[in-house]
Amino acid sequence: MKKKEKKRSASGRTPSGMPGTRISLCMMVKDEEDLLPQALGSVRDFVDEIIVVDTGSTDRTVEIAESFGAKIYHHPWENDFSRHRNQTLEYATGGWVLILDADEELQEGDGPVIREMIRRCPARVSHILFRVEDVNPRDGKITNEIHSIRMFRNGMGFHYRSIVHNQLQVPSGDPLFSSVTLRHYGYHLDPARMEEKFQRRIALLNRQLRDRPGDPYTLFNLANAWFEKDLEKCLWYGRLLVDSMRSGTPFPPVCLNVFYCLMAAHMNEGAFDAAIEACEEAIGLCEHYVDAHYILCDACLRSGRYEEAVRAGENYLRSLAHYRRHRREMRHLWVHMIDGEADVLLGIGISSAAAGHLEQGREYLDRFLRRKGPGPGDWKRLLESLESVSPRDGAWDLKARYLEQALCACPENRPLLQLSYLIYRRGGRFSGAIDCLRRLRELDGDPGWQVKEAELHVERGDPAAALTAIAGYYAENPLDWRCNLLLMKISMDMGRPAGSGRFLENAFRSLVAPEKGRFAAARGSGAMLSRMGEVLREKDDSFYAALVASLPVPPEEMQEACSTSP
């Protein structure tokens, strides 16, 4: 073993306080040059020594640690996280140990809080729990929240066990539950790093399970590890653990979190009934299981069990409030849906509307909007959700309320205008649909929206209005296939089939023109062409029959594309 350390005084005192209040930061690292500066920078002003056990770095990790004044100890990697974690403890000289990983950082402003906690800490307290938030650095969203012992008194016999996902063994003393927060980024690294971590993790877990068959904690971690990779393996290990729990086998409280793996895996597979069953069992074991109520609300909504979705959503809101008030008592529970309140408010609102409770639906949807401070994406999500559940009769007023609000808040958002056009059109509200089309044309200048407007007039049985809408554009573009198809339909609807031949011929000739891309661009009218072909066959008109027969691609073979594209 090679080591490099700074000489310390005989008394062990530092300017930060008495020996019992000195803090030793203990870290084990390997090839962490990207994240280590952030981790060390977040704590260096609040600790008295930095202990780093390096297990074989080949990058600048050691150099970076030394630049922060760390004492470096070199130990070759032995495929045992607890062994190396315990090695860091052997070198600590402070009265308190702080545990931090290289992919974590202390939340800004919490350093002084730690110092004050240590100064005031009663003698009966031997260890302190921090909140650890899994954060996606790309968007800053919290994907999970757990509570973990990250500080403890030195020299009392605290140590780690398990070769992977090491567990701290507490010899004695009371816990102190703190508001100090660590932000963890290790589940959102680049794909190569994540794959490397996964393979090492699985290999160690498999070895641990061979050494300790049926061990609940190992089964839990295997289910958790496979969740992102293989849902069948996740469910297999999760069911083994749950069967063991049902049989009365003692298990660490953290193993209750295996139900999240089961619930979420079933949801990802679209097995909503199985997800609901897992949620209900989890809630039976822990009344305020936050994630279980969240997923139960979602599963019931997707299954059309709207009344149950409302109850589950309301239980989520109560359980989340309970968890926030009683984090200490619920410290073993992992909470992935800590920021799921807006999702659930939307779910309750949609489910209430679908169940016919329109006023209640409006109340919760308004709460969703207040909670979100909505942007275009939030409005789009609300409208799509309302549209997807096909609310009962009488719900149009609720839908119209939010359509108007959305278009007022985001009058120039193209995707939102397109969605609103579709909703108005499906609901038979042609004036609203036409208004959306005219706004879209003003935004991008595409005359295709003008053709869509004419089509709407045809749908509502007003060919005169359709001709007025399309007249100007057709005068300038007499060979446009969309206009010609529409004019052919108008002619036939008005009982003038003889006059429609010219329009049909123009449309077909344009559609099958040899220019590259012309036919592909026209696929959106495949359905209309196919219908026209059927009509022509029924009429058995020789002119039309000859025209259709001359086409290189029969109309019925054209496939319909997105109807919202002009």
Strand order of the largest sheet: 1-4-3-2-5-8-7-11-6
The second-level CATH architecture of the domain at 2-184 is Alpha-Beta Complex
Main sheet makeup: 9 strands, mixed
By CATH reckoning, the class of the domain at 2-184 would read Alpha Beta
Look up the CATH topology of the domain at 2-184. Answer: Spore Coat Polysaccharide Biosynthesis Protein SpsA, Chain A
Strand fraction band?
5-15%
Question: What's the pLDDT, averaged over the residues?
Answer: 87
Regions with little confidence, pLDDT below 50 for 5+ residues? 1-18, 514-524, 556-566
Number of strands: 11
- Oligomerization status of the protein chains: single chain
CATH superfamily of the domain at 2-184: Spore Coat Polysaccharide Biosynthesis Protein SpsA, Chain A
Termini separation comes to 72 Å
Would you mind describing this structure in some detail?
The protein has 566 residues and is α/β, with parallel strands linked by helices. Among the domains are: 183 residues, Alpha-Beta Complex (Spore Coat Polysaccharide Biosynthesis Protein SpsA, Chain A), CATH 3.90.550; 148 residues, Serine Threonine Protein Phosphatase 5, Tetratricopeptide repeat. Strands 1-4-3-2-5-8-7-11-6 form a 9-stranded mixed beta sheet, with helices on both faces. Strands 9-10 form a two-stranded antiparallel sheet. Strand 9 and strand 10 form a beta hairpin. The longest helix is centred in the middle third of the chain and has 21 residues. It starts with a strand and ends in a 17-residue tail after the last helix.
